[in-house]
## 1
Amino acid sequence: MSRAPYMVTLIPGDGIGPEVVAATVRVLTATGIPFEWETQPAGATAIGEFGTPLPPQLLESIRRNKLALKGPTETPVATGHRSVNVELRKQLDLYANLRPVESLPGVKSRYEGVDLVVVRENTEDLYSGLEHVVVPGVVESIKIITEKASTRIARFAFDYARAHSRKKITAVHKANIMKLSDGLFLDCCRKIAKEYAEVVYEEAIVDSTCMQLVLDPDRFDVLLLENLYGDIVSDLTAGLVGGLGMAPGANIGLSVALFEAVHGSAPDIAGKNLANPIALILSGALMLDHLGEQDAATRVRRAVRAVLADGRKLTRDLGGTAGTTEIAEAIAGKVQAG
Ligand code: NAD
């Protein structure tokens, strides 16, 4: 008897999005797990067709399927529409952003053996979009930190550490300056930490954490951060393992999960078959983890490692000349071979 397919909302997005999304669909299909993809435009691409970067049918599709795979979407700087990502995370209450950072074979970087996890709060902080002009020449951006969201993200991080045998959680903050907001975040982390005696809990100031990550990333295990610090530290940690082309991510809520890479729409290389699809392919492996399809997830990760270790098929960002589609074919071939 054939299995019922997993219904997934597929968001190609902007720039290199459609290319890396097609590559990921190719690899996930090669696992043999049945998927049915419901394609929905978002971002700048959707504005032309629907007059909005976040059409209501996209939200309906994700709410129905409870699962989405997303390419990056463009956000204009300092003007124009609000970020589709911020809106999606808020509207679907995707409160936890999970970003594992791992060294991969054959990828030139400053360190070997990096194995970190970034857990970022995804719904509040300075990303609440509360900005206004007080008087001309003076603007105010409001940072919102709540007990509810801080407790929820802390619990997510500790549950993750417990489930994945992680030893230590570092809560990253600037509570020496933002005593009330970051102070509340730390209070919530401390309360939750008491329930998980087997996980070491420590705290570190965000600026010093950035320096220590560059000096000695092995010192950390799971990093637990508010939204803005998490955004910045995610890109920093991606840099430790060879750049944005290697950094996968998951946005997880109580009922919905959305998988996307850390990188953006890379307009400079869009439409040229130059994008590295590995970050989104590894995000696809996180989706397989989420579905409990452990064997398929392991096959995808093994195939990525094998293609990278072989070194003959690499995209330009990794020093090679292979195109997005060639990498996808090479990885899909290894997934099929098991
Ligand atoms: P970016 O991540 O798009 O690009 C930064 C640099 O990294 C560029 O040189 C790009 O070519 C390179 N790069 C990124 N991904 C790559 C890949 N897979 N393979 C090879 N090279 C890659 O960041 P940006 O230029 O700051 O942002 C561009 C647009 O993307 C903006 O509109 C921004 O708002 C948006 N953005 C979207 C998301 C998202 O949808 N999740 C995340 C970040 C940025």
## 2
Amino acid sequence: MFKVGYRVARSMAEETILESTERTSGREALRKNVQAAIALAGAIRSTLGPKGLDKLLVDDQGETLVTNDGVTVLETARVEHPVAKMIISASSTQDRVARDGTTTTVVICAEMLRNAWQLVRQGVHPAIIARGYALAENFALSALDELAINASTEQIESAIETSLAGKLDKGMERHLANISLQAGKTILSEGRADPTRVKIIKQTGGNMQESTLITGLALAKSRIHPEMKERGGPGSILILDGGIERRKPQFETKLNITSAGMVDAFRNAESKSILKQVENLVEIGCDLLVCKEGVDDEARQALSKHGILTYRRVEKKDLDLLSRACGANLVPDAGRASKEDLGAFIKTREELRGGVNHWILDAEDSGATLIARGSTQSVLDEVERCFADGLGVACQLLEEPVLLPGAGATQVALGRRLRRYAETVPGREQLAIEAWADALESIPRALAANAGYDGIDSLLKLTAAHNDSGDYMGLDLNDGEAKDTISRGILEPKSITQQAISGATEAAISILRIDDVLWAQMDAQVPDEVQEQLQGFGAE
Ligand code: ADP
Ligand code: MG
């Protein structure tokens, strides 16, 4: 099935363009678009927060995935509605930019549209609503500064734990939050932390609590000769995008042997070429060799004799990591490598982890490696996803250690400020600002509802608590009461809330501006001969 929706510029040729399309326009278009947004949010609202439930996703091959991550659900589901796709794209952007807050973005956006629709029904024009929403967004983004707090290291760890809440068991969430922060600190350099500098090795077997972080770049590899020595001190590394092997002909070759010495001569020439490659490595001062392909026995002996520590059959993506870690070039041929191609390492060692030998290299830019453990591949995948999220949040917070209260506190605090602000705005935009504030408050309502409490009662309780005790009161989902989020450590990076607010508002505004949806004709084309048979079918 193929569906397309797009906005049309009105033109002279409009009628011709529209011949084969289904069209909804004006209020009806908005109504249908809002309906689609509400349906989409309805599919994932129940996953929001630590008490949110999981979804079981099944693909057409019957593969299953259990997750409570909003964006994973939406990206996996085959959604066809163009407006729903716009919202999913806002949620994916949120995932890419902030690594968290994806469900929040969709829920808020759908609620903004639902509230906008109520206003349209009361006669407010969508353009005015869009203007009011933009005013509300600007006001809220600057009000976030008033609520933000500078994070201590302990609070950064709490914030990482908050972002993992409900995804794994409590102990594992704490463990992953701890190692995500450690990893972030290891790769922090000049105020920047780039999560791609942490490698993940997934190892089946063992308990996920046994997942550990290693400083440096680790690979599940052993050196090619037991007599080769580990290098406890600094040295030079050469990275070979090939191997040191006897050449395998690319095509079938025939050798006409006319004398007894010819085979030996041929073999000798090959050995000579291999030994020459090793000699070149010795000459340029290579201490450590890493190859993508194999290393022949002859070369292995020679390398060992010259004290060149060697690893072979290393995957291309690991070669790239090694190259970045040590500042080495990837070279195709050991015989032609030069001093300039070498990189530098600080030390290398081997360690047994979970029964598997790991080679660990320390270099200027070798980052860190998580060795994830888990009983099955799907447990490992979940650990990997959660660690990636935790690490993303850790990196953001190490770069900008600014936090906001979670558990609905920020939304309620903003809502109160926005309503006061709305009173100062003349015209119907005022109504839109209030509608926008209501939409934000759908988050504490959904958090409460998912934990089994009444959404509206909980929101009223929170608002009263903000009146009495200030901006940081959020919901305790274990007893439904309003409590101080700072002392309970329920904190979130400011960047997540900021991005969720702007992403949701931008998507809502662009959907509000659509007043025409054109669907391409969806009728299947039936070939003529089949058509004839169909016509004859059932006739006497
Ligand atoms: P998202 O995909 O939007 O990140 P989550 O399912 O991760 O959705 O839920 C995030 C929401 O859960 C945030 O509003 C956050 O403040 C809230 N939250 C997280 N931990 C707690 C907690 N312990 N108590 C109450 N609310 C929490
Ligand atoms: Mg989250």
## 3
Amino acid sequence: MAAGETIILGIETSCDETAAALVRRNAQGKGTLLSNVVLSQIKDHAPYGGVVPEIAARIHITHLDRLVAQSVKDAGLTFDNLSAVAATAGPGLLGGLLVGLTQGKAIAMAKNIPFLAINHLEGHALTPRLLDECPFPYLLLLISGGHTQFQLVEGIGRYKRLGTTIDDALGEAFDKVAKLLGLGYPGGPRVEAYARRGDMKRFDFPRPLKGRPDCNFSFSGLKTAVRETVQDLGALREQDVADVCASFEHAVAETLADRLARVFGIFREIHPTVAVPALIVAGGVAANQSLRGVFERMSAKHGFKLHVPPFNLCTDNAAMIAWAGAERLALGLVDDVGFAARPRWPLDSVSAPVYGYGRLGTKV
Ligand code: KG4
Ligand code: ZN
């Protein structure tokens, strides 16, 4: 290992992906992905139409050991080569978090190396820096099944939440619309496929919170409007399904465009001297091609540089956890093995109380 270089094992078990990965960080701060193993539990939860926490935790327990060993082997290394272990400590489902944290702590103790408890959202926020040079500050839009938020990323551990959902996450809204239409789980890709063949002007669904001066989101009213439309239609023809999907996706696209215009303005107010700031879009919903068109159009219009990580690093993975660990380790920000899981763990502890805790659940 070269001087100043570190090799970090990352573990991710906060939701329905069991994942392990190794990254290397050199003395100049450049990252290299050495291995990346992800076991998706989608098919195990599909019969229930969503993630069942107990089932997720059991699958994590069953497979994590093997996946961690696989990630070390894939990198062509042994546990003796590790500089530190990083595991997701929150936010997420408690049972799964405990599985990953316990495994990570055990390896760190057995090998007598530092342990890092990582905030899953920080993993998403720092991913672009594993792939490329991406100087602070930049803007993150995270849109997944569990999260919908804008974060201003100013440094390691320095985040400002500029907006969040006040009810459903965006991926969750896609999944619920798919469920209403009988399209199965996960719904996002299926809604997108139907939307391509549909008429986006047929149904005038609401644009939630449009024109409001903040950057928050709300999707439950939109979901209700879709449900009422579907009920009114009665027996659905293929074309009805396609038109509902297209109209829903169009309402989401216009909502995102409205929020983006606002958040870009806020970024400029806070950091007026950054010539071409980056907008990073992460989370499963970033795979949606028509929404990606909105990100491209809006970024170009407002002078931001769009960066969407490749799909496997955009959705949940352990490479981002390992990388967040590498960045923290470089700053000496190691954690105690007594670190407890945090099912709710806002990235930005300053903004969080504004909206209160109970109502927003783990989505914040
Ligand atoms: O980031 P992710 O893989 O997992 C977590 O939620 O943590 O995101 C999954 C979400 C699901 O809600 C899924 O329906 C949505 O991302 N999704 C999409 C698309 N592909 C996945 N939503 C819209 N369009 C897509 N093409
Ligand atoms: Zn995630």
## 4
Amino acid sequence: MLEENEDAIAGALHADLAKPAQEVVLGETALLFGEIRQARSRMERWARPRKVATPPVAQPGRSFIQPEPLGVALIIGAWNYPIQLVLAPLIPAIAAGNCAVLKPSEITPNASKVLAELVPKYLDREAFAVVEGAVPETTALLEQKWDHVFYTGGAAVGRIVMKAAAEHLTPVTLELGGKSPAIIDGDADLESAARRLAWGKALNAGQTCIAPDYVLVSKGQKAPLIEALRKQFRSMLGPDPLASDDYAAVVNEKHFERLTALLQQGRAVIGGQAETATRKIAPTVLTDVELDSDLMREEIFGPILPVIEVNDLDDAIEFVRRGDKPLSAYLFTRSSASEKKFLRDVACGNVCINDVMMFMSVPDLPFGGVGMSGMGQYHGQAGFDRFSHLKSVIRRGRFPEITIRFAPYNAFKTKLLKWFA
Ligand code: NAD
């Protein structure tokens, strides 16, 4: 489906988000092909019984875990990567033997339509369906009894999803968002950090759940970092980013207005331009931001990057720890001691050291949030296990029969039991 309909998919994403063709590959299809390739080559192994040790008390016996499909999953996607976020969970759902109903986001109607048209052509209609729609349709879907609900989107709707699932005691996966920090340590390679940060913030015009939300930069590094970011944005998108075909648009007017209001909550040292007709906002670096502003309290989810100076790494870590556990956190450093401290002290979903977002390209790294950034992980085997019940099995041999667990009980049997335990 992805191979034969590359143009239709890219066309829909361009219509919804002005997504550049290369970003369709980068952010949507490359990940899907990686997941598909891995699932096809490994799913037989993942599905096999997984042997575990059997202790003396249960001998003679063999113990193993037998993954079994959960049943029917409801997969609800968000609009920022509207194809990927619905199909990436579908891949492990299929590999693990489930049926699924997909509910793409109504905010990107062209991507939703292309999925609704294509999926029934390629997948068994008895087992897979796409339901298009907004709140009323999703509410009706959530009233049904599912075996798993896999939701990607914001925390407010995450609560609605979890409450609805609780009615049927249905397990949920919540892939949420939040403010993912990037920390620049005192010894960081600023050129490289700026290039990668600029890419992470410009991709899909910053509408990425794992985009670096804001930067904490160690004392003395702020001015050179800003100059390096200026150079990088210019080399990627030219002198007028609003005119660049390599730069996506903000998804709709509501988000455009929300973001242009945020532009006022700091001093724009790079960018700051916005164009209503195309819903494009130039990559913007803000300084002098108020820490209790919306900009610093809520996920930005757009091409605006506040840069805040802190004393050092300890200060930066303390700053991050004052907020919710982020979906992702990024550290740029040359020091292994700094890396160790960061990994120990920053609780979050996913980490890159000296880059942003690249854990997404490794199917063997489970992806997901923690605390307010979500629950449950997927990609690779984590996805397969997410859509499986790991059924525990012990197969007992009949001889010899160790009789100490049976009545009549006596002191000797109790002593032996304690010894075995
Ligand atoms: P959205 O508006 O597309 O909503 C997500 C889904 O929820 C849609 O399918 C929508 O139809 C449904 N929905 C909306 N309101 C509902 C309601 N009242 N009841 C039932 N269903 C409803 O997306 P969004 O919430 O704007 O998504 C943006 C958020 O998603 C950001 O916080 C971002 O960080 C997060 N996100 C997370 C990931 C991840 O993988 N962790 C990926 C992408 C986006």
